[in-house]
Amino acid sequence: MIRVFNIPAITWTLTAILLFSGGYHCLQATRSHRLTDRVNNVLHALMTVVMAAMLWNLVPSTMLAQIALLTGAALWFVIQAVARPEFKAFCAGSQGRIKCLYHGLTMAGGAVMVAMMGLATTHHAPAAAMPMPNAHHAMSAATPSTPVAAIDHSPDVAIALTGLFGAAAVVFVVLLLRYRVAGISHRHAAASRLSVRTEHGLEALGAAVMALMFATMSA
Fold first, then answer.
1. Closest to 164 measured CA to CA, from 81, 79, 102
2. Contact 150, 119 (CB under 8 A)
């Protein structure tokens, strides 16, 4: 079993965070009355499972299926964000559209991460599994293969996405603190604010985990 992080405690902690977030989204999916909300929460739950599996390098054989799932989810959120106002079931208001765009970006980032992990696995696996004569080793060193060339550019992408999701985590933490200091006048408002705080907290944790995972790929 290959871990993204060399310290098991960090890997287990991030896995627990992702699975907790996935469980929360599954619970929200069962409570949602609208079909779009159910689909959105199910997609979020599936993404957390994919990220958790990636931490432990599980089911690499389904890499293409994972990329297809996350890419489709990204398109789904983008479609909701740009849909006409007449479609009430989709993202409503400017805040809702921004939220959907961010979720689409998150899904796309997950797809990129899976692809980068797949390239890294493709690059490292043949060297250990297929011994070659010395002449072939020299030729291989002189002429990098296509996956190697792709990996050479991946640190720049990983650094950019690390900064992006790191900034997103900071924004959600600020929003969380803002809702904490706001006054509460009614019980219904209190329940609503609790739900919003929970969502902001999970969004901040999710963005931080994404930033950390991309940071390990930028080294």
1. 102
2. yes
